[in-house]
Amino acid sequence: MDLNVANPPPEPVAALHLIVSGRVQGVGFRPFIYRLAQTQHLSGWVRNGTGQVEIHIQGNNQALHIFTRRLFQHAPPLSQPLLESCEPATVDDLDGFTIRDSAAGPCNIHVPPDLFTCDDCLAELHNPHDRRYRYPFINCTQCGPRYTLIRDMPYDRPATTMASFELCEDCRREYTEPLNRRFHAEPVACPACGPALEFTATDSAVISGNEAALTASVAALQAGNIVAVKGIGGYHLLCDASNDSAIARLRHSKPRPHKPLAVMFPSRPGSPLKCVNHRVYLSRDQAELLLSPGRPIVLARKRPGDALSELIAPGLDEIGVMLPYSPLHHLILSDFAGPLIATSANISGEPVITDNTEAETRLAHVADAFLHHDRPIERPADDPVFRIIHDRPRPLRTGRGYTPVEQSLPFSLERPVLAVGGHMKNTIALAWDRRIVVSPHIGDMGNARSLQVFEKSIRDLQSLYRVSAEVVLCDAHPGYASSRWAERCGLAVHRIYHHHAHAAAACNRQQPGETCLVFTWDGVGYGEDGTLWGGEALLGQPGNWQRFATLRPFYLPGGERAGREPWRSAAAVCWETGKDWPQRPEVPSLLRQAWQRRLNTPQTTSAGRLFDAAAALTGLCAEASFEGQGPMLLEAACQGNGMPVQLPLSRDEAGLLLADWEPLLDILMNEIRPVADRATIFHASMAETILQQARQARTIHGVNEIGLSGGVFQNRVLTELAVTLLENDGFSVTLPETVPVNDAGISFGQVIEYSAIHRDPDVT
pLDDT tens across 388-400, in order? Predict the structure, then answer.
């Protein structure tokens, strides 16, 4: 008898020790590890470290092999695990697999973004037999707030704004059971132990209790009222999207007379886009983006004859649409049974309001009622905004669900740096080693609240990631609030030219020494020669830019006022060329004299101001109530394909290639032509100018790589025309995808530019 066959020897036991970084906290990663170990009959333990997960696993070799393979192949859908190390370990005397308490360790922190409500939680939310039926704060390891409630890392409940909510017996059982999907879901709660709603309105008693407060809120919306609702990253102002009177009052009171308002649509189980599809045209890319985990606002074209109010986006053919992403929003939209305006509750230009008391104080002139809750918001995160441009999602604003934006760098930094961005649409960035983290949208830096959130964001990022900046990067413009803060902060300061940062943001993955031509078209930015740039083509690579081409300069009467008064740019280009503008608004004679004497009339090459001028000359927008209104109306007016006007190219005394926009003026002022024709010709001509300047760079310098960066390239018509022309001519074109092309990408570009200047060539 063969004893070896009847009694095979036990399989040898081996052990592995793994360190996994990336997005592995706040996404159900430890319960996943526990279940995976159980299915393979392995013993060991897992625990959170400071920004990473540590795993000790032991058993037979085949089971270990399956475990390590499935660890990444079958990881939770919202996780992004990265294997830092996998080393043989000593076999310990262990009984089963356990989840250990978190432990401090080397810092490799990844802060999770806020997550949309998952299907499992939505099913419970609408199940009358579930104990969390219609509970506005339902969540699990796969969904719910993260970034906006985390106070410290590792990500554990005591380090969040949920620390003051003591778990009830049922929730504690779920929280401590490794096989439960709410195991260590840090915001976990239920009606018995979690946050609750409260409804307040003028001249009425406070209504407490989730169901009563919800009912009162929906009734107020149905009555045509404006309700300020506290969400995940701040308050929204909600009102009926088909009620002209309510929207007009919202616009008047905020005040926001023309700027587009976002619309949130009900999302029904099984057909989440049905309501949206009835009101707008959705491409496959737009539909996928709406349903993506970040649940952003997506710009989409309106259907004609829809019941939505024309006041949502006056004069524009697109509106910003979004789906509910929190259980509270799902309940409100479901009960209201129709689309709602959902615009940020803030004072124009400021970050979104997050505090209950501040909301009632500062929004009393806008909102008729308030729906509060008592879960504190640690930091604001506005809704992200995306637009499909050249078949790819392009962020116009990052925020809730996407931030902090974490990226790896193609180089290593010697010292941690903090980039404080520019002035408009500001963000900040923290970078160290091979990593960069970009904050959510902060806003325009011309007010006290933006500065407060700006300073808190700086403290928060350094605290959460355990990184202390040693160098501060700021814009070269001496008047920016962010630049003035940098000068006061006490650290070494490096100034980065505005358009160098734009160019670097577009070429951040460029090979060292590879030459690129980047068109940096925007409003205005402080240039190397002290003038206001904005229509540049920069040649070179990060850290080494040469101004190759630009637009014909002109003088702006009134300086910064021209940004909100497009007629000033129109008057300037007419005065510059000696042309008469018959439809020109009444202009004080002193203004023309000041322009002639160059008093408060800075010189600029701005493409953004040229688009403003075109909008005014066509009669679309002489006075703007928000930045970019004129160019947005001009883009919306475009129809079909227009024949471009060839703009003359010449070189100035310094050899700079100038494109002369003068031939466009007579066309723009020609009232015999339809506005749509004039707008289309203008866009086609500007795109053709980009092609012609690129061809010159290729002829002279052999350049084949083109980048597009700056706020003007938020314009889909211009950008797609330019990209098509360039690619058809053999150029390779790059347009930023992870950070906005506008000034929200400046902080990111500042880091790329600085690192290229100060990088050790042997460190890559």
Answer: 999 999 999 999 9
